[in-house]
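Researcher: Let's walk through a ligand-bound prediction step by step. First, I give you the protein sequence. Second, the SMILES string for manganese (II) ion. Third, you return the three-dimensional complex as structure tokens. Ready?
Model: Ready.
Researcher: Here are steps one and two:
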Amino acid sequence: MTPAYLPARRKRLEAALAPADALLVIGAGDPVPLPEGSDQTYPYRAHAEYVFAAGLECPGGVVAYDPREGAAGWRSFVPPVTEAERVWCGAHPREGEDVAGLAAWLGARKGRKIAVLGAAVSGATADAAATEAARLAYAEVRRPKDAHELDLLGRAVAATAAGFARLPELIRPGVTERTLQIEVEATFQRAGADRTGYGTIVGAGPNAAVLHFEPSARAVAPGDFVLVDAGAEVQRYVADVTRTHVAGTPTGFQRDLHAAVQHAQERAIARCVPGAEWKQIHLAAAVDLTAGLVAMGVLRGQPESLVEQEAHALFFPHGLGHLVGLGVRDASGLARGRTRDPRPSLRSLRMDLPLAEGFVVTVEPGLYFIPALLQDPSRRERHRDAVNWTLVDAHLELGGVRLEDDVLVRAGGPEVLTAGIPKSLA
Ligand SMILES: [Mn+2]
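Model: Step three, the predicted complex:
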């Protein structure tokens, strides 16, 4: 049975793809075997572009669309269920046409240009320009979330909130990063998650400054920052949340750092309105974070000019956020016709586009003491006068603070989907 939300979604795709005449094929992709040649594969995830148009996850599936046929032009090809799949996996018959029919479908349309999205589709040779145009149009349709997507996101957020609610009781000196990961993830799953949307990050003490840290056996020490960045996934829809706590009593410096990040985050969230340019929200947050560091005596000078000199990137070396939803990096990227900003501090920005109603974006400022950046001689020379290096050297083991929420952009003002997850430091 075709999911109820699919016709309207496909209609939006038809309108966005018009007036292009190219055929569209979208591959789900195949399971990837483990390197040792056993019958095991990596966990399968169909390509997000396929899931969006197919409404299902089917290994080897292909969605095809011929714009000359309008709404009737959509076809869903699936591989027939094999006996082995029935025996080993309990597979049921799949809905759709036998994928063997794809060759005839393409053959009947010989000479037409083909846009290939998702994973590669055997028998379909992609026209580069048609594919690029289709991908842009497709991303634009994916960005504003429909009601079905917001429902799944809400369930992912609820499971995520349940996991984060465990942290205050769990964060104690002696608990390991790994234990925190296990408890948070188990709670996600008990609360309805299929799995985690990405690798859970738990960093204690100096590890809190490693942006994508994998939880280790390190035990939390009294006074450590403990940074947890994790999200539950429900039917491929993902929440992406970060909180930073302190095990025990925070120092004044830790409180100030956390407050600076929270202040910058609240202001950035307020700026998430339709039409706002993401790059400007990022830069304004960089100024706010920098002002916080100036007030703490870590940086010296005017926040705006420090950001122009890129001094903020010593402590805030990543982008402010990204779109989230169907995967942890939903259809982010560049608006039509834009190229990547070459400024070093903007290179890692995951998107450059104006926000619009229905987008769900993460807002995740952070301030970190990262030895790999702060002990680099050329950076120290370049920012010799802008940084209080004595104060920095005293905090090289401190770690860092990141706060991340998922924000729905609405005409009436931003709605923080993850507002129920507390931000208290201790
Ligand atoms: Mn994120």
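Researcher: And what stands out?
Model: The chain has two domains: 6-142, 147-416. The radius of gyration is 24 Å.
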